[in-house]
Structure formats: structure tokens, C-alpha cells
Design a protein that fits this description.
Helix content: 40-55%
Number of domains: 3
CATH topology of the largest domain: Rossmann fold
Structural class: alpha/beta
Number of strands: 11
CATH architecture of the largest domain: 3-Layer(aba) Sandwich
Low-confidence stretches: none
Distance between the termini: 52 Å
Largest sheet: 8 strands, mixed
Strand content: 15-25%
Order of helices and strands: EHEEHHHHHEHEHEHEHEHEHEEH
CATH superfamily of the largest domain: P-loop containing nucleotide triphosphate hydrolases
Number of helices: 13
Mean pLDDT: 82
């Protein structure tokens, strides 16, 4: 395995360079801010440096054809986003015309901050139906909207450590960041120095994913079990029967592949009492979001981790994801650094970001 560094003006730019060359299977080792070299380096904007590990043969296989495929995917994604933007504009125009003048301004702000126009309209219409806004000043209306958004975001529910043994599954589509997120949570538990922890991975489809978790398990000095099927999972759970916390990484299943989803069901159903966290990318568009939620509808209960907030333009998708799934938020991630770039969702902070803008603009 080899090490390579990528530098960009932003984390997004550095990550784009990495993905173009190494593809999605590279192991992210660290992300840090650096100063440009030279006499005037301290007066220039800091750069972002990402360090990644990769198998050399994979790099050879990926260039240059994979770069071409990635560019085609990017173009197709941009076309999809443009189409969605035009549809949202049409829907937004209709929804906005039905709101009172007191709320139209906030509707525009919320949509600009990433909230789906239909969801924004629904929230504001509900306010209008329940509360008489006539004669109320701007500050009062803003506080009413803040309260409503807080209610819609709910009460974030992080991992609940209150049982004899806590078995926790991390599931979600390919590339959403399950392994890194698991490592961040594991590292924070290690820093607490209160629990005996074991790691399990069933993500055996990608060698890089297993290697990545091996690296983290060695750094954190935590035992790691690799499972290939339901029987292996039962044996691993038996080996970890004395652990306080067991964190389980699952394969990044294609949510459109029914067979892969069935395999995931088998793995999850080996455990009767568990917590499940569904990870969703903060940059996902509404169509894909609905598709992902539909494919994981077989789950009776789960909590939400929203990843890659640092790659999103705004925080609106946190509310969109909560609204569409009707499940509780828990954490969101803001980068690749382990263990720092993860935090429990703060409703007050998110609400501030959803309505932050000078309404007189």
C-alpha cells in the first residue's frame, strides 16, 4: 500500500483531485490545513491537504479510462441537478404564490438554504393555518418559524449506551462514508476510556474497505473480526460476547440491487437487540434520497447520520432527510479527520443556518 497527498484550496477541491486519480476506494488517512510555503505564506489563505493510502495496481487500472467515466458521471449528475433545479423552480413559484407576504420572504430564504420547496411550503402553510400572523412583527414571526423548524428537526438521538451490550450497525449506500464514520465514533469511545469495544466488518466486497478498518483498529488497538456471511457473524458475536460495545460496518450495498439488500437483511437479523444507523450523503438530490429511503424501508427502526456536510452547499438536506424518513437525526460529519469531524446534531445551530440571511436583501 502506498501513500499520496493531495492539496486544494478547499477540502472539496482536494477530495476531487483524490477521487479523480485514485477512485472511491482509497483509504483516507488524514485531512489537515496547511500554510502555503514561502515568505508570504502566512498572509495567504490556508490550503487543505488530504493524505490517502492506495494499492499501486489499482491506480494503474484506474487511469485513464476511469477518469473519463468519472467525467461522464459528473456531466450526467449536473444534467440531473439542472433538471431538478428547473422542476423545483416551477414548484417553488406555485408554492410561494400561495403564502402570505409575511412568510414568502422566509420561504425564499429556506429554499436558498437547501430546503426542498415543497417541504418549506408545507411547514410555512402549517404555521399560517395554526397561528394568526396579522399584526405580528418580524422578530415574532422569525421566532415562530424557528420554533416550527426545531419541531420538524426533532430531538437528535446519538448512540444510547445503557444496556449490558450495545450492538450497533452502520448501513447505507456505497461511498457514503460508513467506515470512516464508524472509526470516528469508535475513537471517541476509546478516548472516553469507559468501554470494552469490538469491531466487525462485513464489507468484504471491497479490499480497500477492509484494509481501511484494519488500519483504524490497529491505531485504536481494538480487535477486528471480518465476516462473510450470517454464520460468520454469529461466531464473531460469540467471540465478542464480553464486549460493552460492538460496532459493525456493513458493505455499501447498491440500494437498487435486491439480492444485496437481502444479504444485508440476513446480517442484521442475526441480532435481536441492536441500534441501526442509516448513513445518507448530505449532497444527495431529492430523487436519489427518496430511492434510498424506499430501499431501506424494510428496517423497522433506525436513526440517521448525515455525512459529508462539508461537501454540501448548505444544511437544508438535514431537514429534507428528516422530513422524508420521519426518523430521528443523530450525528453529522464534516470531514475525514478521525475522531474530530463528527458531532451530534445541534438543532439550534441547524435552525440558525436554515434561516440565516438578511431578510431585507
Amino acid at each position: 500500500m502506498k501513500i499520496k497527498k493531495y492539496i486544494g484550496q478547499t477540502a472539496h477541491e482536494a477530495m476531487l483531485k483524490l477521487k479523480m486519480e485514485l477512485g472511491p476506494d482509497a483509504v483516507i488517512l488524514s485531512t489537515k490545513t496547511i500554510r502555503p510555503k514561502g515568505l508570504f505564506g502566512h498572509f495567504k489563505k490556508p490550503l487543505v491537504e488530504i493524505t490517502a493510502a492506495f494499492e499501486d495496481k489499482d491506480l494503474i487500472q484506474r487511469n485513464p479510462s476511469n477518469n473519463y467515466e468519472n467525467k461522464l458521471k459528473d456531466i450526467n449528475q449536473e444534467l440531473v441537478e439542472l433538471k431538478n433545479m428547473m422542476m423545483n423552480f416551477a414548484n417553488d413559484k406555485n408554492a410561494n404564490s400561495e403564502l402570505s407576504s409575511n412568510l414568502k420572504v422566509y420561504h425564499n430564504i429556506m429554499v436558498k438554504n437547501g430546503i426542498n420547496p415543497d417541504i418549506s411550503s408545507s411547514i410555512l402553510k402549517s404555521i399560517e393555518e395554526q397561528i394568526n400572523l396579522e399584526g405580528k412583527d418580524i422578530k415574532t414571526i422569525k421566532n415562530i418559524i424557528r420554533f416550527s423548524l426545531s419541531e420538524n428537526l426533532g430531538n437528535p438521538q446519538p448512540i444510547n449506551i445503557n444496556k449490558k451490550q450495545n450492538i450497533i450497525f452502520f448501513i447505507g449506500p456505497t461511498g457514503v462514508g460508513k467506515t470512516t464514520t464508524l472509526a470516528k465514533i469508535a475513537a471517541n469511545f476509546v478516548l472516553d476510556n469507559k468501554y470494552d469495544i469490538g469491531l466487525i466488518t462485513s464489507d468484504t466486497y471491497r479490499i480497500a474497505a477492509v484494509e481501511q478498518l484494519k488500519i483504524y483498529s490497529e491505531i485504536l488497538q481494538l480487535p477486528l473480526e471480518i465476516v462473510y456471511n450470517k454464520d460468520d457473524m454469529i461466531k464473531s458475536l460469540e467471540n465478542f460476547k464480553d464486549k460493552d460495545i460492538i460496532l459493525i460496518d456493513t458493505a455499501g450495498r447498491n440500494h437498487n440491487d435486491i439480492n444485496q439488500i437481502e444479504e444485508l437483511k440476513d446480517i442484521i437479523n442475526t441480532v435481536e437487540i441492536k441500534e441501526i444507523f442509516l448513513l445518507i450523503n448530505a449532497t444527495v438530490d431529492n430523487k436519489v434520497l427518496n430511492s434510498v429511503v424506499d430501499k431501506y424501508s424494510f428496517l423497522e427502526d433506525y436513526k440517521l447520520i448525515v455525512t459529508k456536510i462539508d461537501e454540501a452547499e448548505n444544511y437544508g438536506n438535514l431537514l429534507n432527510i428528516k422530513h422524508i424518513t420521519n426518523k430521528e437525526l443523530s450525528y453529522y460529519t464534516t470531514g475525514q479527520n478521525v475522531p474530530d469531524d463528527i458531532q451530534v446534531v445541534s438543532v439550534d445551530d441547524i435552525v440558525d443556518k436554515l434561516i440565516e440571511e438578511n431578510i431585507n436583501d
